[in-house]
Specification:
- It is a single chain.
- With 331 residues, the protein is α/β, with parallel strands linked by helices.
- It folds into 2 domains: 174 residues, Rossmann fold (3-Layer(aba) Sandwich); 62 residues, Histone, subunit A (Orthogonal Bundle), CATH 1.10.20.140.
- A 6-stranded parallel β-sheet has the order 3-2-4-1-5-6, with helices on both faces.
- 37% of the residues are buried.
- The N terminus is likely disordered.
Length: 331
């Protein structure tokens, strides 16, 4: 993995950051680590911050949330935006509070920019008039993605590829900064120092064979439908959260919106959902390959986490590395 992190903060890791592509088994490993180490879990999933979006984001069950404290879930309504910068501020606070309780912070999720906001801090965003920003966001939300992508290429070519890959929400974010400040987001990144020091973390990547990953994605989509994904999306629409709401633009929600509002065939929508999720998983894998720190460890996770021996092996490897890097004796 290429060096992408300023390690100037140094010191032993303050927590374990568990990441990997969707369906790689992060939740099961995080739960078991929390049980074994006396930990609390911080979600690093940009969709799980939304209230009322449980099935389509595959949130951990209420029972597990009672058993083990979780942070980073159900923070905002689907009509609100939640940025990596805000996650960085929230997560730093949660990490400090968890440490103060004598427990271990365990971060788990596949949103790479959330993780990088801690290991490679970003700058505080420039001041922007809230009213003008709100009106601009509403106008940009009405524009087709192709037009937004063209504007980004013109206004911030250095960030264009990243913004286009991130979809409408990141395109809008990349456009609002130059339109409201006169300077591109890339230029702000270059000119302003990071807002915080890096947080030293043990970064663990769960790696799954592509064919196995595809099988798990198909199974997850089927399970989401059985668990009531269509009804969940219908409820969100009835509450006034349309397809342009920040939380509703993710895979699964937009396809089911088309079923409910446009009469799209459900089977066709689910096939599209599976294909889009596979593409997203491959983008995650590419991102992890190029953006994570040199000292991240990669654990093969082809065997399902429901296999107790496989789960035990992964957890033991992580705990051993955690204790080694913290200078603790292994029992």
């Amino acid at each position: 993995m290429s060096p992408a992190v300023d390690r100037s903060a140094g010191g032993p890791p303050r927590g374990i950051a568990l990441t990997g592509a969707t369906t790689s088994g992060k939740t099961s490993v995080a739960l078991e680590l929390a049980r074994r180490l006396g930990g609390e879990i911080i979600s690093m999933d940009s969709r799980q911050v939304y209230r009322g979006m449980d099935i389509g984001t595959d949130k951990v069950s209420d029972g597990h949330r009672v058993e083990i404290p979780h942070h980073g879930l159900d923070l905002v309504d689907p009509g609100e935006r939640y940025s990596a910068g805000r996650f960085s501020r929230d997560a730093r606070r949660w990490i400090g509070e968890i440490e103060a309780r004598g427990r271990v912070p365990i971060l788990a999720g596949g949103t790479g920019f959330f993780l990088k906001s801690l290991t490679h801090p970003i700058f505080d965003e420039p001041e922007m008039d809230a009213d003008r920003r709100s009106r601009l966001q509403s106008w940009l939300d009405e524009q087709p993605p192709e037009r937004l992508a063209d504007w980004v290429r013109r206004l911030d070519p250095d960030r264009a590829e990243l913004a286009i890959e991130g979809g409408p929400q990141r395109l809008t974010r990349t456009l609002e900064v130059p339109l409201l400040t006169g300077r591109s987001l890339s230029a702000w990144h270059r000119r302003r120092p990071a807002a915080h020091q890096p947080v030293p973390l043990l970064v663990v990547v769960l790696d799954v064979d592509r064919a196995e990953l595809d099988r798990r994605i198909d199974a997850r989509v089927d399970r989401m439908v059985r668990d009531g994904l269509v009804e969940e999306v219908e409820s969100l629409l009835e509450r006034g959260f349309g397809p342009d709401a920040p939380g509703m633009t993710g895979t699964g929600y937009r396809e089911i919106v088309d079923v409910l509002r446009e009469g799209r065939d459900l089977d066709d929508a689910l096939d599209d959902m599976r294909a889009q999720t596979r593409r997203y998983a491959r983008r995650q894998i590419t991102w992890f390959r190029h953006q994570l720190p040199d000292d991240a460890i990669v654990i093969e996770a082809d065997a399902p986490a429901s296999d107790p021996d496989a789960l035990e092996d992964r957890v033991e490897r992580i705990i051993e590395e955690w204790r080694r890097r913290r200078g603790e004796e292994t029992p």
